């Protein structure tokens, strides 16, 4: 199995922590975010990882050169990283979509078991999402009908919002082919540099392609966008360790 990790962004909200390195190299739990993801993906059966890079490329090259054996990691450079959001990063990796794969944002820290419902889910395209009582403006919100995603985006409001996407998806081989086609169409739309990869997922849904979702089951996760997020992840790194028992009630992302 293959995984694509989007790690090209500048992480401006995290400066100065990301002044010369991407968010995925920030320290959490005795290692860094990238190491956490790679270990979890390897344990889930992933043997190939493609990292889409941009900001801090030299640091990424140094980090990958020091990785232990056990998983193949390659870098793809997004030359538009300084002026674009992650839709262009995913488009830059379209040649790698030659088989089924897992897609993840590079700033995700999560409990290893959170991948289990995703891997167990059927269908050609499935995203992980979490139901919550209250959604923030910056959440990537999801509207669902049964097990099918009908809308996804930060602009969803009120009763249109049923869950929050956590930025991790799975595609079958056919799903990967459909995603490549969708990316070629979406990148021709206006303001493409300021669009997120979920716009390609919405495009698929609008075309009638079935996009499923799987619930996180309340397992903890966090995407590290701000210094507060980083502080929380570092102070609570035990939440993302499969060897440590979790409290009876976990609400996932803080």
Structural description of this entry:
By secondary structure, the chain is α/β, with parallel strands linked by helices. It has one domain: Spore Coat Polysaccharide Biosynthesis Protein SpsA, Chain A (Alpha-Beta Complex). 26% of the residues lie in helices and 25% in strands. It is built from seven helices and 13 strands. The chain has helices spanning 33-43, 57-65, 86-92, 115-120, 173-186, 198-206, 227-235, and strands at residues 2-7, 27-28, 31-32, 48-53, 72-77, 101-105, 108-110, 125-130, 141-145, 148-153, 163-171, 212-215, 221-223. The strands form three sheets. Strands 1, 4, 5, 6, 8, 9, 10, 11 and 12 form a nine-stranded mixed beta sheet that branches. It has a two-stranded antiparallel sheet with strand order 2-3. A two-stranded antiparallel ribbon has the order 7-13. Helix 2 links the parallel strand 4 and strand 5 (72-77). The longest helix is centred in the last third of the chain and has 14 residues, at 173-186. It is globular, with a radius of gyration of 17 Å. The mean pLDDT is 92.
Query: What's the total helix number?
Result: 7
Strand content: 15-25%
| Total beta strand runs | 13
Give the low-pLDDT segments. Answer: none
Quick structural overview:
The protein has 254 residues and is an alpha/beta fold. It is built from seven helices and 13 strands. It has a single domain (2-240), classed as Spore Coat Polysaccharide Biosynthesis Protein SpsA, Chain A.
């Amino acid at each position: 199995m293959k995984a694509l990790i989007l790690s090209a962004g500048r992480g401006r909200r995290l400066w100065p922590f990301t002044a010369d390195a991407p968010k995925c190299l920030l320290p959490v739990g005795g290692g860094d975010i990238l190491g956490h993801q790679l270990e979890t993906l390897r344990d889930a059966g992933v043997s190939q990882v493609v990292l889409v890079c941009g900001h801090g490329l030299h640091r990424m090259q140094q980090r990958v050169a020091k990785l232990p054996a056990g998983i193949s990691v390659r870098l793809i450079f997004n030359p538009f990283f300084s002026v674009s959001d992650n839709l262009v990063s995913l488009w830059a990796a379209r040649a790698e979509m030659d088989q089924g794969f897992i897609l993840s944002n590079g700033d995700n820290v999560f409990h290893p078991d959170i991948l289990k419902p995703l891997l167990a889910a059927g269908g050609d395209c499935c995203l992980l999402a979490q139901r919550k009582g209250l959604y923030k403006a910056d959440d990537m919100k999801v509207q669902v009908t049964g097990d099918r995603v009908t809308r996804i985006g930060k602009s969803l409001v009120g009763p249109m919002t049923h869950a929050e996407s956590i930025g991790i998806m799975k595609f079958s081989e056919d799903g990967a082919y459909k995603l490549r086609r969708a990316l070629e169409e979406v990148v021709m739309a206006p303001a493409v540099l300021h669009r997120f990869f979920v716009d390609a997922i919405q495009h698929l849904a609008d075309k009638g392609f079935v996009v499923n979702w799987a619930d996180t089951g309340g397992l903890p996760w966090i995407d590290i966008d701000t210094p507060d997020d980083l502080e929380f992840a570092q102070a609570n790194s035990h939440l993302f360790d499969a060897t440590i028992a979790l409290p009876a009630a976990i609400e996932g992302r803080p």
